[in-house]
Amino acid sequence: MKYSVIYPKTxxxxxxxxxxxxxxxxxxxxFMEQLSSGLWTLSILSLLIKRKVEEIIRDEMNKSxxxxxxxxxxxxxxxxxxxxxxxxxxxAEIAFRLKDRKSLEYFLAPTAEEVVTTFAKKHLRSYKxxxxxxxxxxxxxRDEIRPRQGLxxxxxxxxxxxxxxxxxxxxxxxxxxxxxDTYDSIFKRCGLNFIKVxxxxxxxxxxxxxxxxxxxxxxxxxxxFCPECNYGGNQEKATxxxxxxxxxxxxxxxxxxxxIKTVEELVNFTKIPPEKMLKTIILEADxxxxxxxxxxxxxxxxxxxxxxLGAKVIKNASPEVVNKVTNAPVGFAGPIGLYQxxxxxxxxxKSAENLSNFLCGCNKKDLHPINVNFERDLPKPEKYHDxxxxxxxxxxxxxxxxxxxTLQGVEIGHIFQLGQVxxxxxxxxxxxxxxxxxxxxxxxxxIGVSRIIQTIAEQHYDSKGIIWPISISPFQIMILPANSKVxxxxxxxLYNKLKEKGFNVLVDDTDTRxxxxxxxxxxxxxxxxxxxxxxxxxxxxxxxxxxxxEKYNSDFFSIKKENSLPSGEIKADDLMxxxxxxx
Length: 583
Description:
alpha+beta, 6-stranded mixed sheet, 15 helices, 33 strands, 27% helix, globular
């Protein structure tokens, strides 16, 4: 392709309202431009990258045995009512909703579980049709409250979503694991630096799920990662291991704490560290009071608590509710006198298990007992739950030895074991081996295709611009005539020859100085530059320059062919053979 026909052109200055490096470079390089909040126009440069990513996805999905389809973007209300999600998405205000001329209501597809389940129950009628995995690459819409960071969180985007249908829970797990391996292959081929972590299933539903997170400083998600065993989890899902040394029990003391309510105030007043405190919080789950006790230095994961209770909304209780539940003001709640004597659900976090000689509230104003112990001073809980957020420095729950580290990540893929969350309400059944109707066991697997474009830009750049991995670069080679008046015809001749050989080539045919061409080439990030200039005039040779000088060294050329010129130069007769080796 000729650069003269590509728009928009590169920009010298960073856009003022953009924060992330990837967004700045994609805009400056002419890969995309903003139409409105969360809406982006992709130039031919980004489209070529998107098609490369789609090609990799299709190749790996086809290898896995999945079959491609394409489902409507406009989805009727009745399907979403059948699954029970219409009102949920309306309440969450994340779906674009519209009416047709007959006043029938629709969503612009935020996802496709309802549509594909309807398709499956019509066509996958027997166990002989299973397992089946159907995928599409299509446009999705979500009414983001704060669209940001370019293609990472837009209101219109491209997704690959796949849906599997199995006979039973065991085969569903087999398909899930196969998709996990497939995702590993896809993201490696795209040149992404990523990890797989445990995740919450969110509005999609189901039990087991995992996210594939691209590691980048601009990532919105905080990840907990164990370098010892490679365990990882989103902060809302990750679990920690709590191990306390055995202590001699100390006599309980009731300490007067006048108007001292918060953990921070108690630490300053008593000099007792927060990890030796058990704080008790009154919350409301769908407007019903719930009591949670956890270690003083930790925070409740509202996601974990909501999943435990099956609740839609978790919020802190009002002072009036706290007083009603505890008979004390805010800041003095505690298990003593409340646990096993309350009509409300009471949960202890795993951080409380084996905690000894701790401080806690006793539901009396201006009073906090210290050296409290389970069994002696209050009943030992029957069960402990994982309700707190895991944090930096805690021990890993998987190996119990490693110390959790924090990383920032962008979600590029998410896989779910849906079970029968959709097949049950939508009555999606098949005839099993015994001749009876049985509900499908389903899985769901998503990849943010357009998001990958920007995520790669966030990971692969330097001060000069983006450095595209060869596998997804819009072009393999960029030809730069040193002097457009002198070298353009020879550059176009080389361009045509390379195209005939099947190479994907961009030639800068604009009437600009070589220095400007170099700046543009670095910004565009094409892997290999071929400069047609003085060497061509003198020796029918080209100067070769790699965009990624850390990964590729121009000495490659001097060792591959005996008659190559010194480092960075190559004879015209040898060029084709070397490019065949490279690409």
